[in-house]
């Protein structure tokens, strides 16, 4: 019996500048490099629904009719592949790896067979969207009932609904005491940093490869998209879109049309470029913290957001390509989408398999503000980065017709020439024709105002939801936003704009309402200095850890406010508002997204001098050498739950003295103690991992450079932490380290046993315990343990708090 099907096919470029808008009756669209051959035969691999493989891109309009309306994307995670299927790539070559293709086909068949057990043969291949290659898992379009059936199959660790996440430097490196002429290892150029984000703009000087040597031996990635030119600096690029859905401004390639990925990548590894500024603001020399390192970008975020299925594909491919450090400035946009278990979290899954291969993942803590438990990252094998302020400030003066002046925050590059314009309240001019009410128009949402009444005026708006939300404020000359929120972060707007505090905003409102012809103007911003920096940014998410309360989160703090870095000059609008046609090679942004690549760079810097250090050793060196912060540095009063071990200190991290090391076995013992069984852990690790009575590790025994205990108020407790430290670096032996404790309340008793460690050889590991007993009478008590030999200071926070 011969079965036939009729489909429509489009082959060609999908770069937004050259591709036609695809009609709805197109069933497939493909971009393929016909030069990629094996023995003269053109190789064309069609993968359903999008995960573009290098420059091969496939979009698939679903034809599945059964339960079509109820289907959605799910990630089916099954741990590690059998050892004989793990490797699917050979080092970078112009020829396709036939072994890799065969292994990938076998993996795909394994996943198709699993789906057939639930869906039947005809629906299985259609439902399968993508097979991961570095770990065992796939993406499928299925119903909730079908997902439940898959959860019950042997070998399945978790079935995770796809959710949508979002993307979360002239002065910052100097502020950290990391000058441009710092000593560097020649092996830095052998390291590849993988950035999961919105892609990159390859034409930017920050990514110029003309001064770099050949691509490092062992690199297995490539950059074959015809619209994206890599070089010896930017050596890898890929993109992922399982859903096949794209926004009108998306480039179906690794090219960055958002700007976020370019900005973050340049903070980590950007070349030294100067002069750099945003129309004169933030002027100086832009550079990444590891400018000699190579870059590979994995575009997982699009105009419509960042699907978790795509994010996991980014981890998957980066691991297979052979990156050395991963930087991820992406996370959930709401508390409701936070995962409830480690292996229901794509970041925990991806970073675990990266850790298995010696790759450290640096991950942004998130921008969900100063409330407790707002950090989505919970896994102890990744490095969670909070954001702190820099000394740089931007103030914008608002002048009213009555002569009063008010200081606000924004990065206002526009010059109104001191011209006074009519001032009007947004709540008085709703766009009633399109159904907007005064209660909505007062917030100045894009299109919420009557454009005729807003034109030629400055609009006063209540509250503030971000530059992209308000857009061009319905054609107004400018906008003044009043809110009770923090006035720390200055944003770039698409029009002259100012952000005032509620008190000043109320006075402006009173003037507007009491004057027959109120007027105002907005001046260009002035750059200033914040002498109180660093302190935790108000937007930076806070701990404690939601899944395991006795693990400290975040781990570290780094600059994340008013960071000037690279920008796609003619690809992405500076304000994030399409139609904002200003162009600049650099832009100013704030977020834990900007803090994260600072730590990524330092991790890369450390690895260049210490190639054999594990991810945990690098993490420990960064944390134990951080500059201590005090409760005053976290204005909301959350201390270590705001800033972790403290402020990043790159130079000190290079010579930590001691490190708290850990490997997969340590994390397996931790997971055994968290309730995972032998069968599940063997699936995850792909080896003979076993949970026994002897290795069910208590959370207090995981070898982290922090000590955290949650309790209840005024309740007596007694907890024992087991730790070990390894001596690293050029020391003379024997080398003696003594323990000291910072002050703490008299209701507690803390003992370190032994209180002196004597190392007699290089890389020696010695154990110790910390016992804490007593009770606390406040919500949180923090102190610290310091090991010192008189030269090195190895500091670890100790936190006891009341759990909620």
From TrEMBL:
Residue stretches making up the Peptidase S8/S53 domain: 190-644
UniProt-annotated location(s): Secreted
Domain of life per record: Eukaryota
Keywords of the record: Hydrolase, Protease, Secreted, Serine protease, Signal
Stretches assigned to the Inhibitor I9 domain: 74-164
UniProt record, GO biological process: proteolysis
Location of the Subtilisin-like protease fibronectin type-III domain: 701-800
CDD domains: PA_subtilisin_like, Peptidases_S8_3
Active site: 197, 260, 593
Family: Belongs to the peptidase S8 family.
Name of this chain's protein: Cucumisin
Organism: Clitoria ternatea
Organism placement in taxonomy: Eukaryota, Viridiplantae, Streptophyta, Embryophyta, Tracheophyta
